[in-house]
Amino acid sequence: MAPIGKLFAPVALSFLLAGSALADKATDMVFSTGVLDNIPAQKAVTYDHSRLGPDSDEFHSITDGSISLAVMPSDTGGAEAVMTISESGKRRSRNPFPADAGNPLVMTFLESSLRSMAQITGGSPFYLRNRMKESLRSGGEVTPVTVDVDGQPVAAFQVAFRPFANDKNAERMGDFSELTLTFLTSDMVPGGFVEFNAATPERNGARIYAETMRYTALTDQE
Questions:
Q1: Which of 7, 98, 162, 199 is 20 to 30 Å from 74 by CA-CA measure?
Q2: What is the span of the domain harbouring residue 89?
Q3: Count H helices, E strands: the chain?
Q4: Is there a domain that residue 221 lies in?
Q5: Does residue 17 lie within any of the structural domains?
Q6: 163: buried, middle or exposed (CB in 10 Å: 19+, 13-18, 0-12)?
């Protein structure tokens, strides 16, 4: 079995949408290019990262994670997006992404959501990936919202997808049949995204799975 991280390979948006034009406004908003242009030079966009789920050896929870994203000159004379992932005092960098190919946090978020669902349900990551791809191609729901960023109200859009709502195997997926992928986008935030969220429905005050990457600050590059 191929590593799950390979299934949403960072060649990114062309892989996810191959053979299909951007389906509608929702898809276009999430996978639009040029969103890294408003990250200033020598600065990094920082996100808090949490992942909650079952207490088991198969599932990896995160309570204190963070992700930083910066745009730097590449060896070829262009620009590349450099991502650093931190958790429990440990840091690792991902291979650079083309800076003009959209925000690579989208793919990182989808990889993580897919991996978590496969770990919890034991389902085929290939099947789950394909259903998720179909949903993202087909479009989602777009709602204008106002969100708090650095203590200030900011105009944004909430873009929601429910990849397994009409799946033929929904009954076997349990709460994951109602999984919602939600993206908060805003041109006022460097990198174009305020938050990435994946969650199953809340039942009796708890969820089987919830994961969030939330914009926190624009900081100096280290």
A1: 7
A2: 22-216
A3: 5, 10
A4: no
A5: no
A6: buried
